[in-house]
C-alpha cells in the first residue's frame, strides 16, 4: 500500500522533474508566516509562497488582492487538531501522503480532507480520496457506517469523498 503509493508519487514527481524542483525552490525562498494551531496554539512557521501557492484560502489572508503584498504574517486555526495540521504540513512540503496501514488510520485522513476543503486545496483533496479509495480496494473492504455518516455530515452534496464513501456502501 504505502510503498506502492510512494513509488507512484515519485514517478509522477519525476515526470515533471526539473520544472517542479525549480518551482519548489522558488516557493521555499520566501519569507515565513506563523500559523498557530489547535487549542494550545502550537506554532508552525511555514513558507508564505508555498502555502499561498497551494491554498487560495491562505492567499486571501496573507496577500492584498491589489498588489500581492503581504498583509499579515500570522494566523490562528484554533479549531484544527494539531495531528491533522501536522499531516497537512507533511503533504505541503513533500507532496505525498502516507497510506493507511489499517482502517483506524482512515480517521486522520478524513480530518485532513476536511481541512484541505476548508483551505481550498483541491490537489490534497484528490490525493486523499485516491489514498482512501486505494486502501479500501487493496484490502477488499468497505468503509463502516460510522465513517460514511462522518463524511456525510461534514461534506456537501456534490463532494467527491462523500460520493465515493456513500457509493461504496450503497
Strand order of the largest sheet: 2-1-3
Mean pLDDT metric = 85
Give the biggest beta sheet: 3 strands, mixed
Proportion of residues in extended strands: 5-15%
Low-confidence stretches: 1-15
**Separation of the first and last Cα atoms:** 25 Å
What is the 3D form?
globular
The tally of helices reads: 9
Give a description of the structure.
It is a single chain. With 170 residues, this protein is mainly alpha-helical. It has nine helices and three strands. The protein has a three-stranded mixed beta sheet. β1 and β2 form a beta hairpin. α3 crosses α4 and α5 crosses α6. The longest helix is centred in the last third of the chain and has 17 residues. The N terminus is likely disordered.
What is the fold's blueprint, element by element?
Elements lengths: L1 H14 L1 H12 L3 E6 L4 E6 H7 L1 H7 L11 E4 L4 H13 L11 H13 L3 H17 L6 H9 L6 H10 L1
Parallel strand pairs: 1-3
Antiparallel strand pairs: 1-2
Helix pairs in contact: 2-3, 3-4, 5-6, 6-7, 8-9
Question: Care to give the gist of this entry?
Answer:
By secondary structure, this protein is mainly alpha-helical. 60% of the residues lie in helices and 9% in strands.
Primary descriptors:
single chain, 170 residues
Amino acid at each position: 500500500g504505502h510503498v506502492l503509493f510512494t513509488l507512484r508519487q515519485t514517478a509522477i514527481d519525476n515526470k515533471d522533474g526539473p520544472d517542479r524542483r525549480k518551482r519548489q525552490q522558488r516557493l521555499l525562498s520566501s519569507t515565513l508566516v506563523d500559523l498557530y494551531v489547535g487549542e494550545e496554539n502550537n506554532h508552525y512557521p511555514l513558507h508564505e509562497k508555498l502555502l499561498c501557492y497551494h491554498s487560495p484560502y491562505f492567499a486571501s489572508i496573507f496577500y492584498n488582492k491589489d498588489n500581492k503584498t503581504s498583509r499579515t504574517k500570522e494566523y490562528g486555526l484554533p479549531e484544527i487538531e494539531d495531528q491533522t495540521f501536522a499531516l497537512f504540513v507533511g503533504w505541503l512540503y513533500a507532496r505525498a501522503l502516507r497510506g493507511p496501514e489499517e482502517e483506524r488510520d482512515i480517521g486522520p485522513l478524513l480530518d485532513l480532507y476536511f481541512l484541505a476543503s476548508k483551505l481550498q486545496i483541491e490537489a490534497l483533496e484528490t490525493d486523499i480520496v485516491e489514498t482512501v479509495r486505494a486502501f479500501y480496494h487493496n484490502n477488499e473492504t468497505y468503509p463502516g457506517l460510522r465513517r460514511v455518516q462522518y463524511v456525510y455530515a461534514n461534506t456537501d452534496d456534490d463532494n467527491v469523498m462523500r460520493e465515493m464513501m456513500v457509493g461504496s456502501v450503497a
